[in-house]
Amino acid sequence: MAHNLNKPNSSVARSNNRYKLMGLLTLCGAQLGQAAEMKIGVSLSIPPYVIQETNSGLELELLNQALAVKGHTASIQYLPLARTFHELREGKLDGIINIKDGMLDNVFYSNVAITYQNCAISLEANHFTINNIDDLNNKQVVSFQRASSLLGEEFAKMAKANSGYQEQARQVQQVYMLMKHRADVVVMDKNIFKYYLKQAYLEGKLTEKDSTQQAICHQIFAPTEYKFAFLSEQIRDDFNAGLKQITQDGSLVALQEKYRRLMSFENEAEVSNKLTEPKIIKNDSY
User: Fold this and answer.
1) DSSP states of 252-283 as a string?
2) Superfamily holding 118-222+264-282
3) How many CB atoms lie within 10 A of CB 79?
4) Contact 255, 50 (CB under 8 A)
5) What are 45-85's pLDDT values in tens digits?
6) CATH 3.40.190.10 fits 11-115+224-249, yes or no
């Protein structure tokens, strides 16, 4: 039987109609001047960006502050990544964080909300020259899970050819391995590294000597920019307006400083006569 190519697929049409309905309901609330509670899907606890145990983190506070400018609040729903996409499609979520253009259809993408900076991190005492991915060959490299499929073709080739390459699901393990000299290089976001290094010291899992070794961030990867996605165009616009305001009025800088101090050893150095506050990582700007 010949198919009519001009006739829309009924399941696709129903899906599109559901998106439109859910977005319209949220939009109506916003237009009536009502503060809306947004159900926002978050897939991973990634300190310092998302700290699930305390429902905090740089990204979550940024989200809350930006939405609050227009009177909205966020209810964070922690779900596996695939499920956040499904729940958003079904209209059970109002938005999700950490997404790139084109990953989902029928949603409204915000302006860039957060930027991650993956680095190849080594210890200064090892005197490694790392200016590109090729320089990781023949080194013991420990990356975050799925890095070989996320960091580009050149990195994937290195990972496949390098017998000393491995990936860790728990990123704190990368920090332990580098600082205990069980890895030459770890590949991870620089702020995640700093957060876990500080926590490992506070929890006694790394000694003062371990923790105060000088690390170097070799920035051989381009920054990764993430947006947030919303079902409602109006809420997306409200978020963008809020993000612009907190950027201009200094709130975002204050938030970044809060988390910079959380990751630093400043307070510990102030109360200890034994610990000298180190610059945790060279070639770094927050």
Assistant:
1) HHHHHHHHHHHHSSHHHHHH-SS------EES
2) Periplasmic binding protein-like II (3.40.190.10)
3) 19
4) no
5) 999 999 999 999 999 999 999 999 999 999 999 999 999 99
6) yes
List the chain domain ranges.
Answer: 11-115+224-249, 118-222+264-282
β-bridge partners, 168: 144
Strands, E assignment, the chain: 37-42, 73-78, 95-99, 108-109, 114-116, 118-123, 141-144, 165-168, 185-189, 215-218, 224-230, 281-282
Q: Do the two domains 11-115+224-249 and 118-222+264-282 of this chain adopt the same fold?
A: yes
Integer Cα distance of 13 and 8 in angstroms: 7
The 10s digit of each residue's pLDDT in 132-171 is 999 999 999 999 999 999 999 999 999 999 999 999 999 9
Q: Tokens 């000298």 appear where?
A: 276
d(Cα 211, Cα 206) in Å, to the nearest integer?
6
